[in-house]
Amino acid sequence: MANVLELQAIRKQYGGGNAPIVEVLHGIDFSLQEGEFVALTGPSGSGKSTLLNLMGLLERPSQGELLIAEQATSPLDDNQRTALRNRYLGFVFQFHHLLPAFSAMENVLMPMFAGQGKRTRAMEERALFLLERVGLAAHAHKKPVQLSGGQQQRVAIVRALANQPRLVLADEPTGNLDSQTADEVFQLMRSINQQDGVTFLIVTHDPRLAARTDREINLVDGQIARDIHQPI
Amino acid sequence: MQFIWTVAWRLLREGRFQSVLILSGVTLGVAVVVYITAIVNGLQANLINKTLSTQAHIVLRPADEDNRAVVNQAWVLSDVQKRTQRERTLRDWTASRDLALATPEVKHSAALASGPAFAVKGGVRKSVSLMGVELDDYQRIVPLQEKLRAGRLALPNGSVMIGVELAEDLGLKVGDRLRFDAGGDREESFTISGILDFGLKDLNRRWVLLPLRAAQSLLGHPLEITELYLTVDDLFHADQTALRVAARTGLKAESWIESNAQLMTALRSQRASSTMIRVFVMIAVAFGIASVLVVSVVQRQREIGILRAMGTPSSRIMWIFLLQGGMVGLVGSAAGSLLGAAIASGFSRLAAQPDGTPLFPVDLSPELFISTALTATLVGVLSALAPARRAARLDPVEAIRYG
Ligand SMILES: Nc1ncnc2c1ncn2[C@@H]1O[C@H](COP(=O)(O)OP(=O)(O)OP(=O)(O)O)[C@@H](O)[C@H]1O
Ligand SMILES: [Mg+2]
Predict the structure, then answer these.
(1) Which of A24, A138, B213, B383 is deepest in the core (most CB within 10 A)?
(2) Phi, psi of A25 (to 5 degrees)
(3) Residues B55, B256: contact at Cβ < 8 Å?
């Protein structure tokens, strides 16, 4: 199966200048296959978010190479990385991070709108289709503040799917939800993964959820401690 | 770009309090600019109008005659002295007039034969200026219609028009006879056909309009004139036109700008100080816009981060904020123009003359509004530059990190 993403000896350091240099990631190697549903676990401060930001092209590694769809990303300039992010990647954050000035439907079509600069009927239809899929069609024109936490996170998840990405990166998407809602949101991502074949990488602290993925990558002190493919 | 417009507009609408704050600032600033400009322009136009209502734009006179010492050696600097000037006249003036009229920019001309004389009535002698004119030509330069106080605007043979002060001093009314003594046994009596108010006491006491031929013979130089009056298309370039006319005709040409040098200096410095005020107000407006936008960039940090994370190019983020500056400038300038215009016309009504007509008209021309709108929009975009760059450079990771 094809690699969606590959990390080769990735290191990340912070600091320099006046601040002391701290290495947060000490050489990470792994790859994500098309259609995988992966959990990234590890204690607080182990570097999970840092790794996710690197994979999401929001930051550049200090050393090593990151390949997306078999293409090296280090030679790309910021605009090319932005365009790649727009087309291939989707993000889901812990705190929903919807745009408060826009309705649920507009939030969902925003990645398409932002990438192309203009808004089309087809975009609106796709946004409505996605909302319908998560049972929120009736709430399409509500602002985020009018939605519950679980509803907001479902909007955020389908927003990540707007541009039909190959990989969705989710940083503690259920961390802010009660356990029942967390379960529903997790189940939603699982079903999207199974139906559409979109690869998911989910950072989670919840061992119960991690156990329900295909594979768990465990990060400790900036190094991969375990990388287990689990039987379903 | 639709995306930029949509997001810029939504962010403005969402940040209601800030948007109202920033808009009020721009509105007030623009109102001050519009008000000052309207008042100053109106005042100046009115002053110039008044000044020019009794003056030609350019006056042509015979060139000064110089005494020139005989130069017999090449290295001797020529010794040029002005001769004492006596009343000099233009002989072949029709040729000069045609040359002057053929100069681009020159519109109309009128010949004048002027000179001093005494108006004599019942033993009282008043010193006056005789001004012999062809009435139709002269009126094209100095409009008389609204100056007429009695009688009619006509100068048939044997008639004169005089100012209101002279009429009062000598107890004259329309139809009365008045004798003029130009010295050297040249005397003649005229019938008063009209009485005029030139707007200035001195002129009303001295000016006497009479037919050109009558003035020429009374002043002792039949066929000759003393001045050619001209009007031009572009008032404010009359000095340059005067130079061209002088070069063509070989006559001395003086524009109204030179003969009213003091007024022009006063107007110019008034204009300069109003420009200063406008510039400083605009700078204050720019700082206002910039500081509110900087705060809004900080507050919008998380949204900017989300937009960047979903793949919005940083240039688009920059444009969103530039556009907000421009929108605020444009909308603020529209509101400010209305407010400034309202204040200015209110002021002109307050400062009205007893009869209710305004002391001077305020200048509320479309150009004023268009140029104000353009300036304010530009100022808006420019003052958004620093906040916009800041937004574009924001590190999305930093921006998103904390909920
Ligand atoms: N910009 C930065 N400058 C300096 N150090 C940083 C920076 N970003 C992250 N770090 C450090 O890197 C380490 C890893 O942080 P990271 O946020 O990736 O941890 P995490 O595994 O996501 O933790 P958590 O589970 O609490 O979210 C931490 O020690 C953090 O202090
Ligand atoms: Mg984290």
Answers:
(1) B383
(2) -120, 130
(3) yes
* Ligand 1 neighbour A166 (Cβ under 6 A): no
Note the pLDDT tens digit of each residue in B206-249. Answer: 999 999 999 999 998 888 999 999 999 888 889 999 999 999 88
pLDDT score recorded for residue B209: 95
Give the pairing type, strands A19-33 and A37-41.
Answer: unpaired
DSSP-based three-state secondary structure for B131: strand
CB of A175 within 8 Å of a chain B CB? The answer is no
Domain endpoint, select from B191, B217, B250:
B250
Residue B203 touches chain A, beta carbons under 8 Å: no
Query: How far away is chain A from the Cα of B317, in angstroms, using its nearest Cα?
Result: 10
> Given ligand 1 and candidates A12, A14, A217, which is best to mutate, with the most ligand atoms within 8 Å of its CB?
A14
Phi, psi (5° rounding) for residue A50?
-60, -45
- Give this prediction's pTM: 0.77
Q: Check: CB of residue B179 under 8 Å from CB of residue B210.
A: no
Give the end of a domain, one of B192, B217, B250: B250
Q: Which of A101, A114, A159 sits opposite B312 (nearest CB)?
A: A114
Q: Give the ipTM of the model, two decimals please.
A: 0.91
Count of A-B CB contacts under 8 Å: 81
Give the dihedral sign, CA B23/B29/B30/B32: positive
